[in-house]
Design brief:
The chain has 13 helices and 28 strands. The protein has about 500 residues and is an alpha+beta fold. It folds into three domains: about 45-180, Sandwich (Immunoglobulin-like); about 190-325; about 340-475. Strands 1, 2, 3, 4, 5, 6, 7, 8, 9 and 10 form a ten-stranded antiparallel sheet that branches.
Length: about 500
């Protein structure tokens, strides 16, 4: 009897549970359907295939081209995907606020549309999806409060309703708002070479080299570049936007007027500035041409792969005109792997001051002079100080096969020499010369055909005495003449 009662109770519980489940499911589906019915346009972004925006004097047509959007009317151009996606999101998220006239009333009185500014709507939007077009949505006048706009679907359900006025503002876009306004379309990370041809022949060629992708000058010098400075130029170029479009399909006469008709992109004559980027393994070229200055300080420019001429900001032009010195590596004494350094030698006034080697315990052993021990912390500082030297000026450059006279810089017989050798035998050898007229000091790194100027305070950390870097063995009874460390922790 008890078992039978339990079974009956369980069956009743399951029936009630099923009833609650389906009731809740039905309520959720009904609520979802009500929410969909409030939407101006029910679709998913990936379903969109074309958008037509018809204004009072302009019709804009956008089409999905593979994975991106393109403008096909009134101009043929790439579109700004982010702007188009914002437009789609705004259209999808627009809710019908209140029905003003139902379909029966509109059908019975066709003149009602004129009452709400819909006989000649100020904007019409037609969205085509992968399964076909949706009804065209027309937007008329604003409500008396100015908070809402009257709208109507031009299809089987022509009811008149309101939407929030700011929704219309976000749909009423111009060609300029929706077109691709990038001055040059490229991925900064794919750039392997940069060529900048500037009026007057101050031309630059930079290339990315080595496993670390470090930037170097190939012309007019063969020296290291400042990677962050080069990246800054590329970032500014990648983010650059046209301020306005002045000619869609200019002829040669117009191009000449804009300073964009140079016979050759490599020409060093005329007024045109040309930036060429070589991308990827196939070295595909992207080229921006900058012409003469227009009214308002902007400059005429053109992407060589597209027809239109547009205006760009002078800040971008100034970035492309940066002096070579601002793009050069200002830390030419950089030590790529400090922990890999195994030997340091310091010479002063032509005489050897001290030589140390680092052992497997990372302690510095003094090889010369005898009778002293190395201050390991101070030798570590030599590496840090050398690596951090930042030059303040580029004084002299020469070709690798030249043999310049460096006497006037005090570098033929340098007052100080520091040689740092790593575990593979690679060396950083620095020569310290005489004072500059501005109170700095001349230096050079052997192997780099340049003389630099640095601040005197920078070199003071490397102008060391024997007592700065070693301790007499007699002062430390626990040390030996071949290594160890004193108690001076700095």
């Amino acid at each position: 009897m008890r078992l039978k009662t339990n079974l009956v109770i369980s069956a009743v519980f399951l029936v009630l549970l099923a009833f609650v489940y389906f009731l809740d499911k039905g309520e959720k589906e009904q609520k979802a359907e009500e929410e969909r019915s409030k939407k101006l346009a029910d679709f998913k972004d990936h379903e969109a295939r074309s958008i037509s925006i018809v204004g009072a004097d302009t019709t804009i047509v956008l089409e999905k081209l593979e994975d991106s959007w393109g403008l096909v009317q009134p101009v043929v151009s790439g579109a700004d995907d982010s702007a188009v996606n914002r437009l789609l999101s705004n259209l999808r998220e627009t809710d019908v606020q209140r029905v003003i006239e139902d379909s029966a009333a509109v059908a019975a009185a066709p003149d009602l549309a004129a009452k709400y500014g819909l006989a000649e709507p100020r904007l019409r939007v037609l969205l085509s999806l992968s399964e076909g077009p949706l009804d065209t949505v027309a937007f008329g006048g604003d409500s008396p409060t100015g908070r809402y706009t009257y709208a109507q679907r031009l299809g089987v359900n022509p009811e008149i309703f309101t939407v929030e006025v700011w929704r219309l503002d976000n749909l009423d876009k111009s060609v300029f708002d929706l077109r691709d306004r990038r001055v040059l379309a490229f991925d900064r990370n794919e750039v392997g070479e940069v060529r900048i041809t500037r009026p007057g022949g101050d031309n630059i060629v930079l290339s990315k080299e080595g496993s670390e992708g470090e930037w170097r000058f190939n012309s007019p010098l063969s020296v290291a570049a400042d990677g962050s400075a080069v990246t800054g130029v590329l970032t500014r170029l990648q983010d650059g936007k046209a301020r306005s479009f002045v000619a869609e399909n200019p002829g040669q006469a117009e191009l000449s007027e804009y300073g964009l008709s140079s016979p050759s992109p490599s020409s060093s004559t005329g007024t045109m500035l040309v930036v060429s980027l070589l991308l990827g393994e196939d070295r595909a070229e992207k080229r921006l041409m900058v012409g003469v200055e227009a009214d308002g300080g902007k400059y005429y420019a053109r992407d060589a792969s597209r027809n239109p001429v547009f205006l760009i900001d002078p800040t971008l032009v100034n970035e492309l005109r940066k002096p070579i010195s601002e793009l050069r590596d200002k830390r030419p004494l950089r030590i790529s792997e400090r922990d890999a350094v195994r030997r340091i030698e310091i010479r002063k006034e032509g005489e050897q001051l001290a030589v140390v080697e680092r052992d497997s315990t990372e302690s510095w052993n003094l090889l010369s002079p005898a009778g002293r021990t190395a201050k390991s912390w101070r030798w570590n500082s030599v590496i840090t100080d050398l690596d951090g030297v930042e030059v303040t000026g580029f004084v002299l450059d020469w070709q690798d096969d030249d043999d310049p006279d460096l006497t006037e810089y005090g570098l033929e017989d340098p007052s100080g020499v520091v040689v740092v050798t790593d575990k593979d035998g690679a060396k950083v050898e620095v020569h310290v010369g005489g004072p500059t007229e501005s109170g700095g000091v001349y230096i050079r790194r052997v192997g780099i055909p340049s003389v630099y100027e640095v601040e005197a305070e920078t070199i003071e950390n490397l102008d060391l005495s024997l007592d700065d870097i070693t301790t007499p063995a007699a002062d430390d009874p626990d040390s030996t003449s071949t290594g160890g460390e004193d108690d001076d922790t700095g």
